[in-house]
Amino acid sequence: DAKTTQPPSMDCAEGRAANLPCNHSTISGNEYVYWYRQIHSQGPQYIIHGLKNNETNEMASLIITEDRKSSTLILPHATLRDTAVYYCIVRAPGTLNSGYALNFGKGTSLLVTP
Amino acid sequence: AAGVIQSPRHLIKEKRETATLKCYPIPRHDTVYWYQQGPGQDPQFLISFYEKMQSDKGSIPDRFSAQQFSDYHSELNMSSLELGDSALYFCASSLLAGGYEQFFGPGTRLTVL
Fold first, then answer.
1. What proportions of chain B, in percent to the nearest 5, are helix, strand and coil?
2. CB atoms inside a 10 Å sphere around CB A64
């Protein structure tokens, strides 16, 4: 799986948009970009994923650059409950025998302040 | 909605003892994953099962073993416990046909004294 690079920490004011960048310059054509987050000591939580098109769901938006070498997770109106570590994971679809595991690298610790 | 259930939530053991962690996946989910998260570290994949067969193996020590039973629940067995095994152990489940989303349980916090 391709390596990802994220800033170690970011701050965001409550109510503002939080934009979390991720670099994945070695991504392959069949690899997806996934975002998970982990609120302190809780189990990680799936947020969103995409291949090449921008994606949006009730939690966030995912913007992937045209060359797919980087992406940005956008939390449109951050709340205090969004304070968490955010992980950008690049992964191929996988097979039954391997490849469905998540490789959590060093994520971004997002602090949302009042 | 039903979530992944893990038991026990907390466990304290002595060095060289054994421990068994249990995971009950979301109903109808066919794949179970185990992850270990040491203090201040990121989750690390240990092992996974699809339809009761081991499907992938990560950095699981030889002292650990796991299996998935006919009712799809899974158990992680840990022997000869070491201080370094103190960690949060997460179980996740997914529906393989869905593939992309893993649902995580609340974790078991294991402390080895």
1. 5, 50, 45
2. 21
Cα B57 from Cα B59, distance rounded (Å): 7
Distance from CA of A36 to the nearest CA of B (A): 9
CB contact under 8 A, B43 and A38: yes
| pLDDT surpassing 60 at residue B62 | yes
Mutation site for A-interface testing, chosen from B9, B21, B30, B104 by largest number of A Cβ within 10 Å: B104
Matching residue, tokens 């053991």: B13
Using the structure block, give the residue that is written with the tokens 């998935």: B68
Handedness of CA B49, B40, A46, B22 (dihedral sign): positive
DSSP string computed for A1-23: ----B--SEEEEETTS-EEEEEE
Tell me the pLDDT of chain A (114 aa) as tens digits. 668 999 999 999 999 999 999 999 999 888 899 999 999 989 999 999 999 989 999 999 999 999 999 999 999 999 999 999 999 999 887 666 565 788 898 999 999 999
Q: Which of B4, B57, B101, B110 to substitute to test the interface with A, most A CBs within 10 Å?
A: B101
Contact A101 B56 (CB under 8 A): yes
Q: CA-nearest residue of chain B to A44?
A: B104
